[in-house]
Amino acid sequence: MAKARTIVLTGVSRGLGRAMALEFARLGHKVVGCARSQDALAGLKAQLGPPHEFEAVDVADDEAVARWARHVLHKFKAPDLLVNNAAIINQRAPLWKVPSEEFAAVMEVNVKGVYHMLRHFVPAMVARGEGVIINISSGWGRTTDAEVAPYCASKFAIEGLTQALAQELPPGLAAVPLNPGIIDTDMLRSCFGDSAALYPSPEKWARRAVPFMLELNGRDNGKPLTVPGS
């Protein structure tokens, strides 16, 4: 078996995040994850006990992320793999009908949340001299669609932010914007309705995606990638 790695993962309470956490753990890796509420984490904590660890952290709150990062880095050291997955989507509507507070919430979680995680974890990874950062993007971070303009804007931002970060990292590290593909999640159902069932479940997707993520290394730095078969 390959050496066990420490994975720091956001948005673990449902959908892709939960599926990734379970698959990383099944493959023998240590998962340190967060979601916005303790209640949402209860099921995952019941399935994955020590050495895995899960905490309630709102990634949009810089101070909360800072506190969590200090704890994680003290207990587990710098992660081998940092996966920024937490994201929300706006209710479908023409851009001019999206409430200002809803637009702001999408940006706070999807863009600033990733920034907060990078701000508090990347220095330790740089000091260690190795590690891979995966910022989960979207097909809507490379193309667009009507009525999801705030979400598209946030994921286009992730693409640019990640590729710029890649230019700043020293050799040995990598930052990758990763399009997961189309998966049957609650987020997809909010846009596609029942037709979301035509696409793979998060669990089926994770069996293909997680091994792919574990193979990424410094040679992939800055590449906008897509999970194979998605």
Q: Please count the beta strands (DSSP E, at least 2 residues each).
A: 7
Instruction: Record the strand order, biggest sheet.
Output: 3-2-1-4-5-6-7
The chain-level mean pLDDT equals 94
Strand residues, percent: 5-15%
Q: What is the CATH H-level superfamily? A: NAD(P)-binding Rossmann-like Domain
Shape summary: globular
Q: What would you say this structure looks like, in words?
A:
With 230 residues, the chain is of the alpha/beta class. The protein has one domain (6-215): 3-Layer(aba) Sandwich (Rossmann fold), CATH 3.40.50.720. 47% of the residues lie in helices and 15% in strands. The chain has seven helices and seven strands. It has helices at residues 15-26, 38-47, 62-76, 100-128, 149-168, 186-192, 202-215, and strands at residues 6-10, 30-35, 53-56, 81-84, 131-136, 173-179, 225-226. The protein has a seven-stranded parallel beta sheet, with helices on both faces. Strand 5, helix 5 and strand 6 (173-179) form a beta-alpha-beta unit. Helix 4 runs parallel beside helix 5. The radius of gyration is 17 Å and the shape is globular. The two termini are 26 Å apart. The model has no long low-confidence stretch (mean pLDDT 94).
